[in-house]
Design a protein that fits this description.
By secondary structure, the protein is mainly α. Helix content is 44%, strand content 4%. It has a two-stranded antiparallel sheet with strand order 1-2.
Amino acid sequence: MRRFRSYESVLHGTLDSFEVKRLCADGAEPGPNTMRGLTIARPVRVESVTLIGKEVIVDPTDSDEALTAEMLSETSMIKYVNPAEALDVLRARVREAGIKAVSRESGLSRRHVQEFVNAGSTPQPETIARLEAALSQVEERGTAGLKRQPAPA
């Protein structure tokens, strides 16, 4: 047998519940006794932006006979790289080479490079390219300097 709820019980259930996805108007966490009146949206912070693409699986029988799977680059392996891991490796390399030297070589401000290394900021792709180029120059100079030094006697 089905039990029907009265309008009063539905109304009380709605009024007594609170929305976990929203905050109280003063920014406090919602609770049964604090969720009254206006609410505000919870703040949202974007951790990263990832550009994605779609793979196209080509059936050679559906394409022009002159085109093969090799011509359509269908046989190549697609390797996905986590951008956060690549940035962590770059941060460690910059820290090891020295923030000051990489900053000088790249033409970026030292504060900008420090934010990337210490605070974990995510720079633009152009900035990453400049850091990588500067890092290779600094590392090249560092290994060349090690080769020139005479061996201790």
